[in-house]
Amino acid sequence: METLHQIDSQAHGRYVPINVTPCDTVLARTRLHHLGASFVRHLQYSIDTGGLIKGSLAGMLSPTIPVRQEIESYIKMKMYSMQESLATMTSYSDERLAGFLKKALEAPTHVARKMLIYYDLLRGDSKKEVQERYRECMHDDLGKQLDYLLALDAWYSSALQCQLRSPNKTLYADTLTALQADMPKVIEFLRSNILRLDETRL
Questions:
Q1: Where are the domains positioned within the chain?
Q2: What pLDDT, on the 0 to 100 scale, is given for residue 202?
Q3: CA distance 106 to 100
Q4: Which residue in 77, 109, 120, 159 has a CA-CA distance of 20 to 30 Å to 66?
Q5: pLDDT score of 66
Q6: DSSP 108-161
């Protein structure tokens, strides 16, 4: 755990986003572990394509809930979480607001990937491949929503890079204000995907 804390501190000091998913190797062999089937699939894909993860997951994890059930639960919980944060973000500290905006900008790609897995349509795992495949396979309106949100993500990333090179508090505050104004579009994208899943049940 000390090593993880050191990595987290160093990444934070360099403004490098990092996510840690601790996994108890004993609990992972029970049906109560917290790694969903689609996350395990993502890890396996990383292994198969020569990523940083080395080794085989076969036999290391117990079967979990069905993939479709996990994905439905994930998207619903993401929707509720985003709604709650959107309703209270005006009282957030700068650090908490930055964390929320980061998660909001990441959410569309995560949801699009899970939707493709849900319908067994995922072919590649990169953001570009997910975007193109999602646009091909989903309703035109859903594709347009995803394109807009990914363009928003790219715009913010570019603005952030400019800030790192030449800090300007006023300009960055205006950027965050504009970004916050677009947060309802993230909620609308999640909502549209939930409605798409509901159509599947009909």
A1: 1-64, 65-202
A2: 47
A3: 10
A4: 109
A5: 79
A6: HHHHHHHHHHHTT-----SHHHHHHHHHHHS-HHHHHHHHHHHHHHHHHHHHHH
**Three-class SS of 24-85:** CCCHHHCCCCCCCHHHHHHHHHHHHCCCCCCCCCCCCCCCCCCHHHHHHHHHHHHHHHHHHH
* Averaged pLDDT, 33-38: 67
Give residue 104's Cα distance to chain centre. 8
Which residues touch 121 (CB under 8 Å, ≥6 apart)? 133, 137
The amino acid that residue 119 corresponds to is Y
Return the pLDDT at 141: 93
Contacts of 150 (CB under 8 A, 6+ apart): 108, 109, 127, 131
Query: What's this model's pTM, rounded to 2 decimal places?
Result: 0.74
Task: Judge contact between 1 and 34, C-beta under 8 A.
Answer: no
